[in-house]
What does this fold into?
Amino acid sequence: MQQLDIPFLKMNGLGNDFVVLDARKHSFELSVATLQAIAEQQVDAVTGRGYDQLIVLENSEIADVFMRIYNADGSQVNACGNASRCIGALTMQALGKNECSIETNDGKKFARFEDGLCSQDTHMDEQRLVTVNIGQARLKWNEIPLSEEFHDTAGIELEVGPLGAPVLHTPSVMNIGNPHVTFWGEKHPDEYGLETFGPMIENHPLFPERVNVSVGQVLANDKVILRTWERGVGMTRACGTAACAAAVSAHRRGFTGNKVTICLPAGEIVIEWTKANNVLMTGDWMLDFEGVLPADIFLLQDVGAAE
It folds into this structure.
């Protein structure tokens, strides 16, 4: 079958950028070379990256849609909070409903429209906030997973900086679809050089599946500033599951209540950790533009792939 040009959507959730392809309507293959070529074609003037994740929509037998999540390096991500809001909004609009379900590699997520309106300039009238139930917080060391046992994952033995005089230490770890480690500092997170030590912690032997690395500063009982190094991506303007992990971890450490506003470079997101251990995320979403990817980009093969 001849490969055709494929339409795409460019979306973002608080600056977390996504290219969205619909495999329910179009046929295509995604090699690593294709993923990287799409990223190069869609380079953002601010971040210098084409996307944080590429989202493929597929049919689901248990939900309204299946959302497959790729990094540009070809790896798949089990969950993405900001993408869930974007895809939830698209799906609810298509169905004419205020609620929908989204299947992911991490199970089924649930999205709903709120009465409140998005705060960022969406270029659309009355664009409503979206809340997503991201799922349950996994707090046991082997659920995260870690390569060695820790009784209390609210604060583990891990340091950044000189031996005996660490700049950051005793981070919180958990899994909310993806593994996360959150360091807590007294200064603004931008002052700790996350872009320098982030890749080292991401690939630390303690994290067999690699890890997303964040630095948080608690401003009040209900507000945290957060910066994140996203595994397989790098520094990101927003990571929804990192915000969820920071809110849960801050509450576990006694820094905040169970409902927290997380301040990110591109805006704010509200996270609530319920008594039933569900993590709810409420925030903006935006459809930036629509476009078409040329057919030949989907014919690229990886080096060493069979002809």
The first strand starts at residue 6 and ends at 13.
